[in-house]
Design brief:
single chain, alpha+beta, 18% strand, Quinone oxidoreductase
Length: 56
Amino acid sequence: MPRERRIAAWRAIADEVPVATIESVATTIPLADAPETAARLLRGEVKGRVIVDVNA
């Protein structure tokens, strides 16, 4: 999916879905966990949104 379309989708979600609901499907991980999480994403084992905290 093109980047512009993903941005538009997340904006639409932000306008329509309460923040608490969005936060309930998001997981924040430290940068060190990104490779393993990416592998899990590719295997279809991750649901929701993953936020990588580059400062953790």
